[in-house]
UniProtKB/TrEMBL annotation:
Active-site residues per Swiss-Prot or TrEMBL entry: C142 (acyl-thioester intermediate), H235 (proton acceptor), E237
Catalytic activity annotation: L-homoserine + acetyl-CoA = O-acetyl-L-homoserine + CoA
The family this protein is said to belong to: Belongs to the MetA family.
Protein name: Homoserine O-acetyltransferase
Residues flagged as site, Important for acyl-CoA specificity: E111
Record-marked site positions (Important for substrate specificity): S192
Assigned EC number: 2.3.1.31
Pfam family name, one: HTS
Classification of source organism: Bacteria, Bacillati, Bacillota, Bacilli, Bacillales
Length: 302
């Protein structure tokens, strides 16, 4: 089944080329189907790239999905045109009266700030509190995951000695957890962050389960016992070349970044990186939509 996205969204043509089944708002209204309503709070600076990455994953399941993009009202996005935001995004004030079957809160390159120093933190808190009663399940990614752990469970973050950047092996602790059904016992996933969270704090919290982790990158998949909050500390949604683009950007800035670990063939930045996490990414998003959203959300919210 397709994803229903706003008419004219730039990602549309690329998704069509990739044979992702999509439909616009006009066609979707003619189908007598109860679609899933997913809200995406896109905090990434290059919003169009993140839109494409997430829509590609949401469109690869048997479920029809309506997508709404949310932007901050208290922070001005500088890496995307105002016209794009006005055409395809809304703010919390316009959706807070609604119920959503699922929500994705993305990462943001602000992890070195304390949470209360983030200029839209009050807005973020209001939205995270709202999800408790208005969203069936929330998928929190990278900084979004750290924010959720801090707000909902009182687990803070700490700064790493050096940036965690690369593609790392992860182990599965409990293969019966629905979110990772079908996963290999060991799989790879990308990370790109300057902070981390305490695995001990997660293990000791009665409301959380540490589902998967990496010896090098730390805690990775954390699921709340009530299954309403899922925290992914890395970036499974990344394309094959996303870490390369970040690395090249930092090199151009004169930052002299470390080469992302286990990413480039033979650790040579001149060689083309390969996507070694795609299958598990699709599986995780499919499992989330099916087991945590579709199977749990009421047919009629009211």
């Amino acid at each position: 089944m397709p994803i229903n996205i706003p008419s004219g969204l730039p990602a549309t043509e690329i998704l069509k080329e990739e044979k992702i089944f999509i439909m616009d708002e006009v066609r979707s209204t003619s189908q007598n189907i109860r679609p899933l309503n997913i809200l995406i709070f896109n905090l990434m600076p290059e919003k169009e790239k993140t839109e494409l990455q997430l829509l590609r994953l949401l469109g690869n399941t048997p479920l029809q999905v309506n997508v709404t993009f949310l932007n901050t009202a208290t922070h001005e996005s500088k890496n995307v045109s105002k016209n794009h935001l006005e055409s395809f995004y809304t703010t919390f004030e316009h959706v807070k009266h609604r119920k959503f079957d699922g929500m994705i809160i993305t990462g943001a390159p602000i992890e070195l700030f304390e949470f209360h120093e983030v200029d839209f933190w009050d807005e973020m808190v209001e939205i995270m509190e709202w999800t408790k009663t208005n969203v069936t399940s929330v998928l929190n990614i990278c900084w979004g995951a750290q924010a959720a752990l801090y707000y909902h469970y009182g687990i803070g973050k700490y700064t790493l000695p050096s940036k965690c950047s690369g593609v790392f092996d992860h182990i599965v602790h409990d293969s019966t957890v629905k979110l990772i059904r079908g996963f290999n016992d060991v799989y790879t996933a990308p990370h790109s962050r300057n902070t981390s969270v305490s695995r001990e704090a997660i293990l000791n919290h009665p409301d959380l389960e540490l589902v998967s982790e990496s010896d090098e990158a730390g805690a990775f998949i954390i699921v709340s016992r009530d299954e309403k909050q899922i925290m992914i500390t890395g970036h499974l949604e990344y394309d094959a070349d996303t870490l390369k683009q970040e690395y090249d950007r930092d090199v151009a800035k004169g930052i002299e970044p470390q080469v992302p670990k286990h990413y480039f063939p033979n650790d040579d930045p001149t060689k083309k990186p390969l996507n070694r996490w795609r299958s598990h990414t699709h599986l995780l998003f499919s499992n989330w939509l099916n087991y945590y959203v579709y199977q749990e959300t009421p047919y009629e919210w009211e």
